[in-house]
Write a structure and sequence with these properties.
Layout: H1 2-29, H2 36-53, E1 56-61, E2 72-76, H3 82-90, E3 94-98, H4 107-113, E4 117-119, H5 124-139, E5 143-146, H6 167-171, E6 175-184, H7 202-211, E7 215-221, E8 225-226, H8 232-249, E9 257-260
Parallel strand pairs: 1-7, 2-5, 2-6, 3-4, 3-5
Antiparallel strand pairs: 1-9, 6-7, 6-8
């Protein structure tokens, strides 16, 4: 039994390595000739394939932001590096991530090519500059995504949100889409297998996921909040409460759902 688990894990990692190589070649050779919309579609298909080959069944409840129209900010709790690929497999969006990720081998480069905005959170000047960038992108109708806890958890709680990056959303009168992310085992119970927190390394996290039995990732999109009608403190409190509620109640919160076992263009746009 142990040998079968190890063999399956190595096969998954080999498939992942090939998937990363194909993604890197696509970005390097094809992306310079594609417009932003087509780049987003390619990222969505690639992320969906990655989620699938890691043995993850993705279930989405509620309604994600539309790709066209006013700017939107997805705000979610943060458990794993997989969270980014889950959201990317639903729709193209640009993440606001900590600067450390830019230094991850290959993953960091791919994230940058996908439009990720990297932030050195400890520098106030960097936050001011990022706020100006966020406001500009929202005004252009972009969809952005943010994990305001500033770190990951085991998935059993939602840490207090850092509110500094929500100010440009208020100024732009954009919509915030609170989203809860959780991972469930075959019995529908919370699992910490995908959790990437504490002193865990990326290599250890990859191995844990590769060795695991197939599990479910669930995203619940709550009703959007018009940020322009709130002050920052009230807005942060409301978004935080909604995500905590979504994490506790799960699928019962969503009005509709779609299961993404493979790439489905209807589920990603």
């Amino acid at each position: 039994m142990f040998r079968l688990v190890v063999l399956r894990a190595w096969l998954r990692l080999l498939r992942l390595a090939w998937h990363l190589l194909v993604g890197a070649m696509t970005v390097a050779l094809l992306f310079p000739r594609l417009d932003r919309l087509e780049q987003g579609r390619r990222v969505t298909r690639w992320s969906s394939g990655m989620v699938r080959l890691m043995g993850i069944r993705l279930v989405v409840h509620g309604r994600a932001p539309r790709l066209r129209g006013n700017g939107a900010l997805i705000v979610a709790n943060h458990i794993s590096w997989l969270d980014i690929h889950l959201l990317h497999s639903v729709l193209p969006c640009r993440f606001i991530a900590k600067a450390d990720i830019a230094r991850w081998p290959l993953f960091g480069w791919l994230a940058a090519q996908a439009g990720t905005l990297f932030l050195a959170r400890e520098k106030r000047s960097a936050i001011r500059k990022m706020n100006a960038t966020i406001a500009s992108l929202l005004a252009e109708g972009e969809c952005l995504a943010l994990f305001p806890e500033g770190t990951t958890t085991a998935g059993d709680q939602v840490l207090p949100f850092r509110s500094a990056l929500l100010e440009p959303v208020i100024q732009s009168n954009a919509n915030i889409f609170p989203a809860s992310v959780r991972y469930l085992d075959a019995q529908g119970q919370r699992t910490e297998i995908p959790a990437y927190y504490g002193e865990m390394t990326l290599v250890k996290s990859l191995w844990r996921i590769a060795c695991a039995e197939p599990f479910t990732a669930e995203i619940v999109f709550m009703m959007p909040i018009a940020a322009g009608t709130r002050n920052r403190r009230g807005l942060v409190s409301e978004v935080e409460d909604q995500i905590r509620f979504g994490l506790a109640k799960g699928s019962s919160v969503g009005h509709s759902s779609v299961t993404l076992d493979a790439y489905d263009s209807k589920g990603s746009t």
